[in-house]
């Protein structure tokens, strides 16, 4: 079992990573609470796969359980589902002495976490993360949110879980598309903070990686925890987690959400930006080559058939834009990054299009 402490004063918590942890979740959660009832918030994909196992484990630990199932997918991370969850929490008689468990990927974690943050002004919750995105990123750090018609994650809160439970065995059922989505983010962690992780990924492939998930997830969670500890409210350092995201988001928007997955957009964004910063002498020579090679290795895209002029209009919406300048996250070399403030007028120096392949 791997355990990572996230130090946030009164809001500190532990991340537990262990194969088979799902069947022991009840005992872990019992050690955190005297709650009588736990409400499990999950989605329509996970409930039939694992719902019974989770409920059994919780009941064996003495909890009364209730299960709230939302339809799977980003389209349901919305206010209607949130209201529905409030109603069901109320029907279950959940009080602030009880506990909410979010059991799913980033959508369930964000939506269920926001419900936990706001129902009765806050009910304690535990994240059980089931997708790669959730296991390496979204379950750690306390950002919870729903999407609004005006944009993604536009209503949300900072609300820390009481613990994060990660069972890498659950990834066996994660559909291929979401595996690749998660791999983009894992490679990102190697790029910004951990040359060792990057090197390990260079020796593995999409098949052999399955026997290394626990150590890879641990490394990513340690990086995320460290970054979050230094910048809980996303005012500075946490920005480095957005490496590749400025161009990535622009690609997602240009092609329409759903064409490229988020992780694929990030993959292309990392590759295009690094090719440019290397050409400008800001990044160590050879870095862009290694990055493209690793993306190819995991069948992730590294270029798009779009020009800088196509992409630039979509970059204005990025959250990292402040006034007349914005901050790009660029690599010094593999494993090391820095913030680069850029005048908006100079943005085209750093944003290139892809090379059609
Ligand atoms: N809060 C944060 O800090 C943060 C960080 C990154 C991403 N996010 C959010 O996370 C979301 C994306 O996360 P995601 O990709 O996990 O989305 P998701 O929750 O929609 O999961 C992807 C799909 O995989 C299915 N799934 C998940 N685990 C599975 C498993 N073990 N077996 C079979 N199927 C499984 C889900 O049912 C869903 O259909 C976005 O809404 C994004 O905004 C939040
Ligand atoms: Zn991302």
Summarize the entry for a quick read.
With 357 residues, the chain is α/β, with parallel strands linked by helices. 41% of the residues lie in helices and 20% in strands.
What does this structure look like?
With 357 residues, the chain is an alpha/beta fold. It folds into two domains: 172 residues, Rossmann fold; 175 residues, Dehydroquinate synthase-like - alpha domain (Dehydroquinate synthase-like, alpha domain, Up-down Bundle). The protein has 13 helices and twelve strands. β3, α2 and β4 form a beta-alpha-beta unit. The mean pLDDT is 95. The structure holds nicotinamide-adenine-dinucleotide and zinc ion.
What keywords describe this structure?
NAD; amino-acid biosynthesis; EC 4.2.3.4; binds zinc ion; Rossmann fold; cytoplasm; Dehydroquinate synthase-like, alpha domain; nucleotide binding; globular; 357 residues; binds nicotinamide-adenine-dinucleotide; alpha/beta
Task: Summarize the topology.
Elements: E1 2-6, E2 13-17, H1 25-30, E3 37-43, H2 46-60, E4 64-70, H3 79-91, E5 99-104, H4 106-118, E6 125-129, H5 132-138, E7 143-148, E8 151-158, E9 163-166, H6 176-193, H7 195-203, H8 213-230, H9 245-255, H10 262-279, H11 287-297, H12 308-311, E10 321-322, E11 325-333, E12 336-343, H13 347-350
Parallel strand pairs: 2-9, 3-4, 3-5, 5-6, 6-9
Antiparallel strand pairs: 1-2, 7-8, 10-11, 11-12
The structure holds nicotinamide-adenine-dinucleotide (NAD) and zinc ion.
Zinc ion (ZN) binds at residues 185, 245, 262, 266.
């Amino acid at each position: 079992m791997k355990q990572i402490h996230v130090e946030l004063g009164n809001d500190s918590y532990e991340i537990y990573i262990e194969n088979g942890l799902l069947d022991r979740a009840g005992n872990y959660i019992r050690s955190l609470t005297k709650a009588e009832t736990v409400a499990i918030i999950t989605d329509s994909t996970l409930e039939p796969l694992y719902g019974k196992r989770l409920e059994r484990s919780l009941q064996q630990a003495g909890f009364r359980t209730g299960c709230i199932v939302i339809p799977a997918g980003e389209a349901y991370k919305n206010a209607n589902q949130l209201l529905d969850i409030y109603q069901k929490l109320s029907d279950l008689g959940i009080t602030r002495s009880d506990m909410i468990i979010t059991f799913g990927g980033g959508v369930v974690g964000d939506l269920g976490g926001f419900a936990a943050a706001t129902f009765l002004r806050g009910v304690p919750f535990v994240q059980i993360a089931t997708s790669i995105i959730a296991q390496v990123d979204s379950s750690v750090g306390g950002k919870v949110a729903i999407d609004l018609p005006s944009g993604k994650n536009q209503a949300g809160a900072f609300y820390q879980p009481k613990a994060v439970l990660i069972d890498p065995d659950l990834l066996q059922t994660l559909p291929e598309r979401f595996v690749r989505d998660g791999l983009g983010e894992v490679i990102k962690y190697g790029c910004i903070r951990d040359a060792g992780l990057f090197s390990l990924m260079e020796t593995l492939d999409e098949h052999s990686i399955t026997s290394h998930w626990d150590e890879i997830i641990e490394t990513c969670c340690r990086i995320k925890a460290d970054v979050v500890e230094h910048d809980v409210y996303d005012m500075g350092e946490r920005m480095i987690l957005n490496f590749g995201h400025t161009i990535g988001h622009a690609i997602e928007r240009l092609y329409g959400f759903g064409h490229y997955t988020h992780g694929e957009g990030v993959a292309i964004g990392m590759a295009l930006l690094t090719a440019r910063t290397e050409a400008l002498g800001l990044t160590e020579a050879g870095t862009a080559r290694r990055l493209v090679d690793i993306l190819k290795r995991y069948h992730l895209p590294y270029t798009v058939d779009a020009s800088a002029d196509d992409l630039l209009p979509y970059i204005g919406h990025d959250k990292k834009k402040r006034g007349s300048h914005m901050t790009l996250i660029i690599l010094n070399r593999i494993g090391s990054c820095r913030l680069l403030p850029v005048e908006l007028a100079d943005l085209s120096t750093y944003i290139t299009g892809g090379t059609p392949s």
